[in-house]
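Summary for the steering committee. The consortium agreed at its last meeting that each partner would contribute one worked example illustrating the joint modelling workflow. Our contribution is presented below. We chose a case with several input lines so that the handling of multiple components could be demonstrated. No manual editing was applied between input and output; the record is shown as generated.
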Amino acid sequence: MKNFIFSFLALLLLPAYMSGQAIKGKVVDGTGMGIPGAVISAANSRTSADTDFDGNFTINAKEGEILKISMLGFDAVSVPATTGTMNIVLKESSDTALKEVVVIGYGTRKKVDNTTAISSIKSEEITKTKVLNASQAIQGKAAGVQVISSDLPGSSPSVVIRGLGTALGGRTPLYVVDGMQTDNINNINTNDITSYDILKDASALAIYGTRAANGVIIITTKKGKGDKVSVEIESFAGVRSPLKKVKMADSNQYASFTNSALQNNTFAQNQPVNTDWFDEITRTGSYTQNNVSVSGGTESIKYFFSLGNYEEKAVLNGLDYGRTTFRTNNEYKISKKLTLNQNFSFTSTKSTPKPLGAFTNAYKQSPIVPVRFADGKYGVSRVGADGLVSQTGSAFNNVGNPVAQLDFFDEEQRSITLQGGLKLDYEILKSLKFTSQFSGEYYTWKQYNFSDTKNIWLAANPNKVASDYEKEFPNANLNLLTKGREQYYNWNLANYLTYNKVFAEIHDVEVMAGIETSVRGAREKLTIARKNVNTDANYWALKDVEYATNITSYKDEVFNEVKLASYLARFQYKLMDKYLVTGTVRRDGSSNFGKDYRWGTFPAFGLGWIISKEAFLADSKTINLLKLRGGWGKLGNQNVPLNRASYTSGQNAYLGGSILNEGSTINSQIDPSLSWEITKESSVGLDFELLNSKLTGTFDVYDRNTSNIILNTRPYSTSGITNVSPAHVGEVSNRGYEISLRWDDKVSDDFSYYIGGNFSGNQNELTGLKDVILSPVVGGGLGNGQDTKLLDNTTVGQPLGSFYIYEYAGFDAANGTMLYYNAAGDKVTQNVLNATTDKKYVGSSLPKTNYGVSLGFNYKNFDFSVDGYGTNGAKVYNGKKAQRFSGENIEASLATDFWTASNLSASNPAPFNQVPVASTYYLESGDFFRINNITVGYKLPLQSTSFISACRIYVNAINPFITQKFSGFSPELNGDGNPYGSQGVELDAYPTLRSFVIGANLKF
Amino acid sequence: MKKIYIATFVLSTLFFTGCADDYLDVDQTESISTDDVELFNNDAGATQFVTSIYNKFLNWDMTSFGWIGLSSITSDDADKGSSPGDTGTDKDVLDNLTYNASNPSVEGIFNANYDGINRCNQALNILPKLDKADANLRARLAGEAKFLRAFMYFTLVKCFGGVPIVDHLPIPGSDSDRIMQLTRKTSAEVYAFIESDLNDAIAALPEKSAYGANEKSRVSKGAAYALLAKVSLYQKNWQKVVDNCNKVTGYSLANDYATMFRPAGKFDSESIFEIYAQGAVPAKGIEGYSNTQGARGAGGWGWGFNTPSQSLVNAYEPGDVRKTATIIFRGTTLYDGRVIPTTVENETYNYKAYSSAYTDAWETDVDIKYLRYAEVLLMKAEALNELGQTSEAIPLLNQIRNRANLGATPAVSQADVRTAIWKERRVEMAFEHDRFFDLVRTGQAKAAFTADNNKVFVVGKHELFPIPAAFLKQAGTLSSQNPLY
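What follows is the complete predicted structure of the assembly.
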């Protein structure tokens, strides 16, 4: 340290007694534009200077002394100093990789010097596909990053990076938005994003320690640039409709099938009503987005403001979503050494959700039921003696009227997210920088849901009148209003030093060390349900009215706060621009865990060799870049089930009178040694650029192992403890490979094109389980008593998210009954199946491989691009089809092709009237390939003097085509995002949409 | 300027290394930490840990469907009932004595009683720490916990024979505690443990009369003596039965048998240990107890399980008032005027589970009277008879018969009086969860099941239920299965 300070002082003092003179000049690029920020150094005089905004510089140096002029992205030049105004032309570096910078967390690194696996996605890629959440836009664009998204407005896609390594812990990657560490980026306007960097391998991730196991996505938002005010406007409008529909049986097909199932003639032929329920509950969706941004800079301030608005009328009737974002990012250069960055964003959302169960009901409800009867009452599934639907007939299924369901569903949600921070950079010495960064986010949410209980009952019972309700349910609610409120405040503070110096011209050393704390504030949630409110929504909250007697539920929750304290350090070394070494270490302490188990150390290292800089390749025309890199690291996932000993309350009892006595006990036996899940990963990668950098590509292989995944275990039966206890019991392995290739060529000034693609495969497996009493994870429930997924002691050797169901064995040719294989391999009917022995693991809802392709060209003022995405190896469960047990509707394909005594060769079994067991009959391949986006744009030829400096208009087709094997609506089923929940099960699922968009970008 | 930053950095590093660990101590807000014992350090707090034990008796797994299955449907008093196709998960195999070690009801009862025992152990563990609560209160509460723990071990030993004795809170990771939890003790050891708990309870508990109106269901000294008598009865310690029955004082037979099982009969003069249920909102009753046994089908209100058998119907002598107080017959009118239509699916239902005010509710006001003074008289009569004092036994038996509107017993010889007492126990205590165990205890089981539709009771096997397979899997070599399962 002393040496540094000394040399710093020396630097300050030297010019005073040097006999140098002021050398002036200008640094320009090939077009003659001044280059700001270029560094001019005079080796002998030991002076240096930066160019100003116009590229001008002044440096104290002797005439004839060699000046070295360097700038990122340009080839450095050395020229002798002259007394006249020097004019120095820098040539843009031909090595494109040299220019590119990746964000590595607590700093950046030139891409070529990076030893880790990071996928960087640029802003134009993110805004090309017109969707709300940036993570949906990057689907198929980064190898090894699997995005399962839903077109439901406001939903968050699942992002799985290099395979799933946890069963009960958090699965989402850590998002770092301008330094703020958060779980969700729904509040970020994609137009404000300048880069989206995905840290994939452990060697890159370890700097985020105990929160890095699911990967880290670093999002950087835009800053002002240039020296004049620039205004950009982007607007688009689009229409949306389901990409694929399922053709259902019509009324007469329904009637004959159902009669066949019931073996009678309940339903008449020649039905007068033929309702297409899907059409009745959907509309052509529409959405618009408008953004304005103002940016620019002066010598001391760079500024960026943006305002954006997104409005969507979803395809499901009544479902609307709107989001308004405002952002300011400013950079103040307070002094030569001190820079302050400030960013702030405000996001408000408003939505009127509708139940997705309406899709299932529309699928199941019979077409013979009218939307409304002639008298205006909602249609119901009751059949009269004449075989037609009637208000007074007997019920033939228990499916509600989907239109009534949507009409009665009255809910609104609003949220406000404030996110922002301050970052201070202070240059202590030329080579030593101190950074202090504070970020915070505040979230508030409110919701109401009004259930018109009595009228819902009357709609379902058209043969009853209002007074019947009071008669049949004397103490029941007339209606129920639920109000929810939620808020939290999270923040983090990081302080770190970065030291960067080149010794003896060949040893390039960068060291970063710092401390950080992250606090996830206590989430507060209030939910109140009140019965019998005024029917006019304006009068739900009157002044000075006491509602206590009408409260049916009052929940006031404050969830535990989580704190993290961390030390972090990184060492990066580059020898002769060829040999790269990186080492990182982070030590994290988490309040989630017991005192003796809360601190963990997460080391990693990376090595790189830029082979193309070796002498034997230096002159190669074909190989422009060849880099081998590899590394190892250890990561944690601290977002695991809570493990805190607590009293169980609510075990109340009367002891003889009318006083309800409170009862408490302890009903948990916690494992005090519970801590984060640990993932270790080794990976190797190769980056290359060939044929004048026209062909670029990357290969990666990795092997990651999570050695202590947490599952719930049960204490011994005789302990009497019934609560499960999370413990480290399992081991999960993810092995995979990633390939990316891209060909870029500029044929002429008028025509350039590119074609690229990526392919990645991942093999996921639960490799081991300790011998403990597990509390099985049962999931993928169909709401009719059937579950489709299991994780217990029998799951070893299977991928996570595996379906565990009976194997369908065709149907009995004699009577058309469905048959299943039992454990002995015999074909049996469902009522003799044994649930513990006869089910099988039949594949996972997680794909084994996924791939993306993109191609595009620019011709004169036109641009054209196509992006596609596909997955292989996933299974999906046709949950809505598996629901039918009596009078529900069926698909048209089944209505004409089922077993009867006269149609023994049909492909479907005979109609039946019982809940079918979960079986492979309903399991289908989830493989699909979809064109995600086609864009055609045209830049208006404008005079350079015109007021508008650029204008591009474009049309965009999102998800125009798909090829899929799945017979349902969409094989991309994110569900609740949980591989042991509804992910991969099509039930109450929002369909994938096809959208056509027209829009324009304007620049002033 | 830079000095300030360097200083800040160094200072904050110091701060971190110095007190980062305190910094990470976050108070929990979503549930009450077990560190906060002080919150319970008062009279009301201490009471809560024992209330949770009483609460256990209201649970579905402890006292409802599974328990009905094990203690009643298995016996010759009751049939499965309900629709022929509705097995009630496993009630058909319980009825037919064809259950195995994976039987859900058997496993449920095993686990539920240990759940209750954990609550007792938690209370006994924490009560000494609550030094700001009244010492006398804490002593009484500990007595209650011990009585209730003894009651649950008595249930376990009746069902399973010897079971692991968990007499303190196991420490996770402790090998001796692991062995304690997984090793079956002998029946004799379990009985000794039960007696030791009951003796502690007797020393700590007050008489029933000492409790106020809001605490009548708390256990008393009389309850402990009565249970000790019953435990002695099961061990055939006849003199101890007599001695303990003699100490059950302050109780008398209720005048009207039928009223005992209605709200008006709660805590009557005969009630010694009663599980108390409240149907008024907020209801706290035995979960599903009335509903599972309620009349099924059109005009009914329940699932229709545990129906009185023809064998029981035949067991009542003519004129016995207990018959129509115990059995609901299809097509009759109940005491509250409710007509049971002939459209219900079964001919008979359990009247003692019927709630007039909360008929189809999940939690009703139906109590269970686990210990009544009538049983004390019958136990004493049986013991006296076994001790050869038959003439002293007969008047006790007759007290019970007289209340049921029956004349004096014609039995005279020791053997006849023994049979008469056993028969009297059956009709007096039908559907009070005693019959199956009584059949086994008295050795009548084989004959009784043969008489009840030729059900096969294998001697040497069916005296005990199987130890749940799930437990044996945990225990490995430390415990083994009951014979012939």
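Residues 447 and 821 of chain A are 48 Å apart (CA to CA). The first helix of chain A runs from residue 2 to 17.
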